[in-house]
Request: fold
Amino acid sequence: MSNPLTLKLEHGSKLTPGDRQRLDALIQTSCRIEAGQDLIRENDPPEHVRLILEGFVCRYKILEDGRRSIIAYLVPGDICDLHVAILRRMDHAMATLTPCTIVFMAPDVIADLTTNYPRIAHALWWSTLVDAAILREWLVSLGQRPADQRLAHLFCELLLRLQTVRIADENSYPLPLTQEALADTLGISTVHVNRVLQQMREDGLVVFRDHRLIIPDVEQLKEFAGFDSNYLHLDGM
Amino acid sequence: MSNPLTLKLEHGSKLTPGDRQRLDALIQTSCRIEAGQDLIRENDPPEHVRLILEGFVCRYKILEDGRRSIIAYLVPGDICDLHVAILRRMDHAMATLTPCTIVFMAPDVIADLTTNYPRIAHALWWSTLVDAAILREWLVSLGQRPADQRLAHLFCELLLRLQTVRIADENSYPLPLTQEALADTLGISTVHVNRVLQQMREDGLVVFRDHRLIIPDVEQLKEFAGFDSNYLHLDGM
DNA sequence: CGAACCCTTGATAGCTATCAACCTGAGTGG
DNA sequence: CCACTCAGGTTGATAGCTATCAAGGGTTCG
Reply:
């Protein structure tokens, strides 16, 4: 199986065989973690840098009244908190949404990459900037788009992100999220997610069944969502 | 007048007199730009790194239907797009909301800072991480908080951010934003901003008049907004 | 065969948007 | 000096999206 980190970083830099070898060395040791586990909690001091090899992880916050706000998804190939050691404590939590395979990297491993492998360093920077761009685009969704377009937009984003790590094919991918998780992500209620999803299926926009999302007509869904892949910067290099 | 960049970065690193001197040298040459001007547009190739000395700048996106979504505010001391040259083109635009004084820095200036001034480099990293944390907190606001709490939360955030650069005093600061700008930021309509503001004034939470925000009881407003300053990481160093 | 979790459905309420006027103050030009 | 314009703010009425509450159905699993 190919290394999802390599697949992703190829979009951010022109890697050499040496670079790829170094990246492959990274993922020799990984942990298996079941679904629904906290990786780190709010206020914890950050320690490791994490790389997702398999599964879905989310960043989230819990509000006073118990509401959960999901702030980001991490999918295979995603690295979290490259330089988070600079901050004393986490301002949010992270948890697995599915069973996951995760690599925990010590800070000096990152230091080695950024100082001795300039193309990898460049790609890691690119990846950090894309993460911020995704946050901005989510902000636009929550601020301006109605519920159905929010869902559609998220589905389009995940399609592209999962395609880069060869988890999605042309028009479908495994989406092991509950409607509750989608609701907490999009800022709408679970009931409303359910209804919007039904409407979208009725309209032939998507089919979401058995934890797999199928998009009959990708262009149509992008059109519906007002999706412009620009912000993912997949032509980064 | 003290250098807002220095004031800010003191929160992210223990600076030496030499560091401060270097930072002061940065701001010797600045540009004056009037209100309502685009600094850069979506799809433009990024060129300069910008540092705000005076005024309010915003990041924004325009949707197909003409809606504007304001994604971030930059206030004095804020630096934008430290390493954005890695990306080919902007995925959003930036514009002045008020008359501004801005420093445009060439990439090699940044390179000098990050390679020869480790404490400044550390502080710049800290600042980048805080920017991302602010995006996440805004996402929580848009996803989970009702309109009045969104407004209150934003007011609390700006109070702290502007206090670090000595623009805000204990409980008030200049806020040169129109209700329309607030609406585009918080994802609510202008009319609703107006009404919520009136209600908040009636409740004694804030007074917003003549482009100045006064908070009679800061603790009360924080309480109302569910504001936890943790995410600003002002105790970074 | 419960228990637990997730999904689904119906009814009702409420927050917020939209539309349309009107008001106000500042700047402009005749 | 006054009419005019324009941006920004204010107000009222109405509609609509989405939340909430409550209950029921399907699956998995011990």
In short: DSSP finds eight helices and eleven strands in chain A. Residues 130-232 of chain A form a domain with the Arc Repressor Mutant, subunit A fold (CATH 1.10.10.10). The first strand of chain A starts at residue 31 and ends at 33. The mean pLDDT of chain A is 95.
